[in-house]
Amino acid sequence: MAQEASTTSIVTFLTRLGDDQLVLGHRLSEWCGHAPTLEEDLALANMGLDLIGQARALYTRAGELEGEGRGEDDFAYLRREVDYQNLLLVERPNGDFARTILKQFYFAAFMTPFWQGTSNSSDEALAAIAAKAVKESTYHLRHSAEWVIRLGDGTAESANRMKCAVDDLHAYTDEMFQSDALTKELAGAGVAPEPATIKVQWQASVTEIFDAANLAIPEIAWPQLGGRQGEHTEDMGHLLAELQFMQRAYPGLQW
Amino acid sequence: MYSQGLIGADGTTDEDEAFLQHFQSRIDAEQKIEPNDAMPEGYRRTLIRQISQHAHSEIVGMLPEGNWISRAPTLRRKAALLAKVQDEGGHGLYLYAAAETLGISREEMTEQLLTGAAKYSSIFNYPTPTWADIGAIGWLVDGAAIMNQIPLCRCSFGPYARAMIRICKEESFHQRQGYEIMLTLCSGTPEQKQLAQDSLDRWWWPSLMMFGPHDSDSTHSDQSMAWKIKRFSNDELRQKFIDATVPQAEFLGIKMPDPDLEWSEKRGSYDHGPIDWDEFWRVVKGGGKCSKDRISDRQAAWDNGAWVREAALAYADKVRARQATAAPTPVAAE
């Protein structure tokens, strides 16, 4: 008989998952008005909206379960950098379009099977969030994978930019598959799949798309970890300074 | 390409008196003019000018509001603002597509925007220093845009009229969203209400200027009216906007920055003080606080995206070439 997960663990897990979606959604929203084509401007905003929407649902559910009166904005705007447990991958700056799209591809190639596995979660509220999110993530995966191929197999310049993006970001991918006491507890209770079990599917997606894009998967000498423990890159403080500006400058007001 | 196969797309039409009279009779009968229909060159040029400038306004208009997406005060506001700015991009897209039916490409229109050959609404050359500006833009700028645009849903050119129907629905939603931000600020602390007041002070006059010069000084109006591209004069629309908006400011409890604003029983409308047309022309000609920044932002997006667009084309060519090589040799039918 599966061990039930503690409420505190589920709250932490929902918050962690919300942080991933919010931070990447925020990064995508930074493109708005500046993308390479008008169609892509709409697509990046669309994916950003999906992710921000997922973060809202996850934070709201975390607040309800916790029962201390915290709502979505308390999670998003009133925590310190060290309290954010997002993957380092999602907080990395957008860089050029190749880097943005590769980041999206790596993340969506993980989240799509993750949401699939979570859509029959023993936690009904999370299962419902996952059932909606998997549709969105499937689109993000398709959209970003198409661009990885187009850019990798496009011109000499685009191929070189894709290669640089892979060299820069690949070291951040291992973090997605890390297990800790929390992921084990939740997997044991049937709340969410162990991230490590998703690695095979992720590798299959990346191999397939990289083959079509003429890209090689690099060896990772030193995986970059720490986001799940609140140990961030220097970019995170700046991201939060912008994200939280209004709530910090005018504390406690309704907007 | 939309422009292929259109009558007159190369700029030639046979415009004798009979042709012009026939065209005018179609307009007078409220028939929609469609891209493949014969039309006077002046009609085509006027529409290309107006629709492309409208599209550019949507695209440049993404920038002042985009300035607050990363700093929106709550997740609900952040999502709503991102969705709104995305809508503006969508409006730009329909409008460029409508203009393309008249025989101009999106690339040519973009070029005209970046070189300054085509204008965009000069309201977007004002800065958005505070969150309240997101409220004021929705309330006033989108409100003024709606006044201008609702009559365009009946414009004689079919693709433009149809694009405007959807755009107006979305703009109306944006306007209510902006007003709701103002209402929240005005029901908040004195500091929040002051943010709303400061923002109204900065956006009121530029919003009135959005309707263009007074009728007595408007160069394009008469012909556009005859062709039913335009249905009301600048001053008529401006007055409608003022009459609709003043009570809304009263409800918010903030004050219009016009000491001469007064209800006229005789006219059944508000009288207003003089508009500073020197400021209008200064901003139209490129002297707005953000004029240079807006164009350099668009230029940067265009330049930084060049390699992406080139790669997409190169990839499409490769795919086509591979398909051609892989295609089986056609066998003659037996």
Task: Give the topology.
The complex is a heterodimer of chains A (255) and B (334).
Chain A: H1 7-29, H2 38-66, H3 72-77, H4 88-91, H5 97-118, H6 124-152, H7 156-169, H8 181-188, H9 199-212, H10 235-243, H11 245-249
Helix pairs in contact in A: 1-2, 1-8, 2-6, 5-6, 5-7, 5-9
Chain B: H1 17-28, H2 41-60, H3 62-66, H4 75-100, H5 106-115, H6 132-149, H7 158-186, H8 190-209, H9 221-226, H10 234-252, E1 262-264, E2 269-271, H11 277-287, H12 291-304, H13 306-326
Antiparallel strand pairs in B: 1-2
Helix pairs in contact in B: 2-4, 4-7, 6-7, 6-8, 6-10
What does it look like?
The complex is a heterodimer of chains A (255) and B (334). Chain A has 255 residues and is mostly helical. Chain A has helices at 7-29, 38-66, 72-77, 88-91, 97-118, 124-152, 156-169, 181-188, 199-212, 235-243, 245-249. Chain A is globular, with a radius of gyration of 18 Å. The model of chain A has no long low-confidence stretch (mean pLDDT 97). Chain B has 334 residues and is mostly helical. Chain B has 13 helices and 2 strands, in the order H-H-H-H-H-H-H-H-H-H-E-E-H-H-H. Chain B has a two-stranded antiparallel sheet with strand order 1-2. Chain B is globular and about 80 Å long. Chains A and B meet through helix 1, helix 2, helix 3, helix 6 and helix 7 of A and helix 3, helix 4, helix 7, helix 12 and helix 13 of B.
